[in-house]
Amino acid sequence: MYSNPNLKKKIMARIYFFWFYKKLTAPFVIEAIVFAGLILGLSIYVSVGNVINNAPSLFEPANAFNFFTSAFFETELIVQMILLMVIAPVAFLIRDIRFLGINKKQAMA
Asked: Which pTM does this prediction carry?
């Protein structure tokens, strides 16, 4: 049988490229990259450490709710937009985790 090692290397390189591209463009990876970018953008505009230091105890839910809602509405528009955009990837992440759990249950059945 005729074997060309260069042809085999080229074919395998293409296969690995498309496999890596498929893994990289998976929805979960894209959502994680967007989420990381939004968190980075948020950290540029908000001093998270100071917010945590000024926040009331989470064991007092009414005070914590009032603090975070007033902090949200009294901040700059760009920060409000980034915070709202952070919520979407979190919702998709929860959806993906639930979807993975459902698929595992179906696979075991």
From this structure: 0.57
